Amino acid sequence: MRIDLHTHSTASDGTDTPAELVRNAAARGLDVVALTDHDTVAGHREAAEALPSGLTLVTGTEFSCRLNGVSLHLLGYLFDPAEPELARERDLLRDDRVPRARGIVDRLRQLGVPITWNRVLEIAGDGSIGRPHIATAMVESGVVNSVSDAFTSEWIGGDGRAYVEKHELDPFRAVRMIRAAGGVSVFAHPLAAKRGQCVPESAIAELAEAGLDGIEVDHPEQDRDVRARLRGLAGELGLLTTGSSDYHGARKACQLGEHTTEPDVYVQIADRGSGAAPLTG
Fold first, then answer.
1. Alpha-carbon distance 216 to 76, whole Å?
2. What is the H or E stretch that residue 98 is in?
3. pLDDT digits (tens, 9 = 90+) for 226-254
4. What is the Cα–Cα distance from 84 to 213, expressed in whole angstroms?
5. Contact 6, 188 (CB under 8 A)
6. Dihedral of alpha carbons 119, 124, 129, 135, sign
7. Cα dist. 70→96, 98, 122, 186 in Å?
8. pLDDT band for position 193 (50/70/90)?
9. Parallel, antiparallel, or unpaired: how do β-strands 70-77 and 184-187 relate?
10. Which whole number is the average pLDDT over 98-121?
11. 87 pLDDT exceeds 90?
């Protein structure tokens, strides 16, 4: 089985529609794909309705969190999307993205970057607006060569000159809410240092004690040495280890199935999730 548990569609900051994403996943030879758009479940229905025969869809969300001033992301799988507390927080996370993005655009313009709010809105379309949409506008304007080049201290990285904070969850609370909604929580790319400051490994241990189910080990932005460290840490803490592409369509260079999750880990995630069930076409 080939299993990719971290992808994005136009419901957030990917370039494939949910329907295109599941079709492309099948074409790439995947058996299981998780749709984990940022702070939203808006793409799940379309993906489910377009699910090709033989492909299994795992519903999920990538939740924006912050711990001691450091941003981090938690992947929640197979939770009940209607659970009131988690749904309320998801809406707060999504709605705060607009004023935050506008603030980033304003700061960039003050720094001389010739982008407009209207163009960023056009790029985002119906998606949950985020920094990759702004980065795409920056590429179009010629200020940076790629989306990843915008995520630096010079521009819109976590410590960047134009960075603006947004509503983010306490990760310990997020772990508890995901579990209460019947879901499974996995710390996304915990040591992807190119994205900015990472939480210390001690924080991963504390999250494990609080009920975190796993950590994402095999990820395009974590090199071999980092993956080995994370695999060892997961073994010490009794955490599941996942692998994925963090696919965003044309917005990033990674491809569906670039990294994958072991079948036995997927089975454990599916067994632990009680808020929703994987869907098979």
1. 12
2. helix 97-110
3. 999 999 999 999 999 999 999 999 988 89
4. 22
5. yes
6. negative
7. 18, 21, 30, 17
8. confident
9. antiparallel
10. 97
11. yes
Q: What is the pLDDT of residues 111-149, one digit of tens each?
A: 999 999 999 999 999 888 999 999 999 999 999 999 989
Report residue 92 as tokens. Answer: 């707060």
Q: Tell the residue number behind the tokens 């909604």, with chain if given.
A: 181
Q: How far apart are CA 187 and CA 36, in angstroms?
A: 13
Quick one: pLDDT at residue 159? Answer: 83
What are the tens digits of pLDDT across the range 10-58? 999 999 999 999 999 999 999 999 999 999 999 999 999 999 999 999 9
Burial of 4 (0-12, 13-18, 19+ CB in 10 A): buried
List residues bridging with 161 in a β-sheet.
none
Look at residue 251 in the predicted model and tell me its pLDDT. 86
Residue type, 278: P
* Token representation of residue 67: 């711990």
- At 32, list the tokens: 């299981």
* Tokens describing residue 223: 């090199």
CA 100 to chain centre: 18
DSSP state of 38: B
Show contacts of 142-150: CB within 8 Å, 24+ apart: 143/113, 143/114, 143/115, 147/251, 147/252, 148/194, 148/252
Q: How far apart are CA 138 and CA 148, in angstroms?
A: 11
Element (H, E) at 73: strand 70-77
- In the chain, the largest separation of any two C-alpha atoms, in whole Å, equals 52
Tokens 């044309």 — which residue? 250
Residue 180: is it exposed, middle or buried by C-beta count within 10 angstroms (0-12/13-18/19+)? middle
Rounded to whole angstroms, how far apart are CA atoms 92 and 110? 28
- Tell me how far apart the alpha carbons of residues 239 and 255 are, in angstroms, rounded to a whole number: 26
